[in-house]
Amino acid sequence: MYALVDCNNFYASCERLFQPHLVGKPVAILSNNDGCIISRSDEARALGIPMGAPEFQVRDVLRQHQVHVFSSNYALYGDLSQRVFEILRQFSPNVEEYSIDEAFLNFDGMDSNLDFNDYGHQMRNRIRKWLSIPVCVGVAPTKALSKVANKIARKFPDKTGGVYVIDTDEKRIKALKWTKIEDVWGIGYRMKKKMVARNIKTAFDFIDPMHTAWIKTQMGVVGLRLKKELEGESVLALDDVTTKKSIAITRSFPKKLTDYDALRERISTFASVCAEKLRLQHSCCQTIIVMLNTVNYDNGRKSRYFQQVVTLPFSTNSTLTIVDTAVKMLQKLHAENEGLLYQKAGVIVTQLRNENEKQFDLFVDENPKHLSLMKAMDAINGKIGHRKVKLGAQGNQTWNMRQNKLSLKYTTHFDQILTIRCQ
DNA sequence: TCTGGGGTCCTAGGACCC
DNA sequence: TCTGGGGTCCTAGGACCC
Question: Closest nt to A102 (CA→C1')?
Answer without folding.
Answer: B18
